[in-house]
Amino acid sequence: NSKKGNFPPSPPKLPIIGNLHQLGKLPHKSLWRLSQRYGPIISLSLCHIETIIISSAETARALLKTNDFQSCNRPQTNVTKKLSYNFLDIGFSPYSDYWREIRKICMLELFSMKRVLSYEAIREQEVGLLIESISQSASCEATVDLTQKSIALTTDVIFRIAFGKLFKVDGFNEIASEVEVLLGSYGASEFFPIPFVGKIIDWFSGRKARLERVFNEMNVLFQEVIDEHLHSARPKPKQDDIIDVLLAINKKQAESCNVVITHESIKAILFNIIFAGLSTSSVAIVWAMAELMKNPKWMNKAQEEIRNQVGNHGKVRERDLEDLSYLKMIVKETLRLHPPVPLLIPRETISHFKIEGYDFHPKTMVQVNVWAIGRDPTYWKHPEDFLPERFVESSIDYKGQHFEFLPFGSGRRMCPGLNMGVKIVELALANLLYHFDWKLPNGMKEENLDMEENSGLSLTLHKKLPLKLVPTLYHP
Ligand code: HEM
């Protein structure tokens, strides 16, 4: 290593693999333990990749606010390159004129509050169907797999928003989990000091073939829906879906825009929207319900608020959500204890800067452990407890300005789908609590409900075991 300077503290390394073995099965937890020992800025060598881990609100602010521009690149891997159509997307594309332009267009056209609200009917209909299907189980006191139901809900909502219709794709859940694992892990070609040897290892281990297969399946699906949209016989939709919006930009932009949104860029953006929106929102619904099962007092309080507010309207509509302040606190508390993306998406530094006297050299990978920050006793009383009340009369929110609470990140790379994600989580949760009383199956006690996180080579933090509950229909 030829770089000089004041490096952050680092745990002892092994030859070749460096600190790789210290990541363990749950990297956010292992890194949290290391930060308690070595401080809020630590440096690790993951084979030959230099990585800095940030684990306090102050250092997160210094990175994501003070040095946001200097650190807003994304590390490039074979997986992100392939799945993002050679970096034509928003999430994995390096910082560039193209990325700035495409993110600006998407913020205005796809993620604006107006656009998010335009999909209200889709969310309400899909949540209605979810409630209908759970009601059937409730009528015969059958157990419901809420993990599977939440994934089905968010998939259907995102598909309808993106493609304009439901698309039942055989094996889509497998593609989705393959994408998650590929994105959340590194292959030998990234880590191995000699890239050529790494490529051979990835070839023999089957990783390369998995990537090709997943990409091809995803590509066929995206091409099919784009072709359908281009087909002149397609009836004019009541409201534009994401492909309509992007195709319209593609048509009119040639004269006015610095970058061109091609069909490849549309597929890359679809890749982001589908995979960024899907599991993040569904895991938040699952964790919230699991925490409420563990804390029946909070469950009752939430149900009381919702049932009083909604009365006998028969369902919670999006316009009711504004008045459900306790429900909103539950969502915040869930995102604090179980941030769906616990280490954010890795950043890469563009130029040199210092935080707390430590040098950050160009091309260093940086990860922010928002899971650890959300449990830091410096900012949170009883940090391990699920206490929605902590947000009463608190101005703390998740919009990237309170660095002790960053479930959507902060700065230039912050999640643009925040409004879309929060709307679906709040609406689904409110309706699950309005329509049903819930108990654990087979007389299980709250304290025995398993809250283990999944062992995870995935960017998203899942509950390890599916959440299975027994619903009883509530009659207003
Ligand atoms: C509860 C739901 C969600 C959570 C917790 C969440 C969280 C995040 C986080 C932590 C990041 C990385 C931010 C960073 O690196 O600083 C991110 C990025 C992103 N999210 Fe979300 N997200 C959610 C829903 C969505 C939805 C519904 C969409 C799209 C419809 C979406 C689209 C994106 C995109 C495109 C990026 C990449 C941004 C960039 O690199 O410029 N997210 N999200």
UniProtKB/TrEMBL annotation:
Its cofactor is heme. Pfam families: p450 (PF00067). InterPro entries: Cyt_P450, Cyt_P450_CS, Cyt_P450_E_grp-I, Cyt_P450_sf. Keywords: Heme, Iron, Membrane, Metal-binding, Monooxygenase, Oxidoreductase, Signal, Transmembrane, Transmembrane helix. Heme binds at residue 415. GO terms for molecular function: heme binding; iron ion binding; monooxygenase activity; oxidoreductase activity, acting on paired donors, with incorporation or reduction of molecular oxygen. The chain crosses the membrane at residues 269-290. Belongs to the cytochrome P450 family. This is Cytochrome P450 71B34-like.
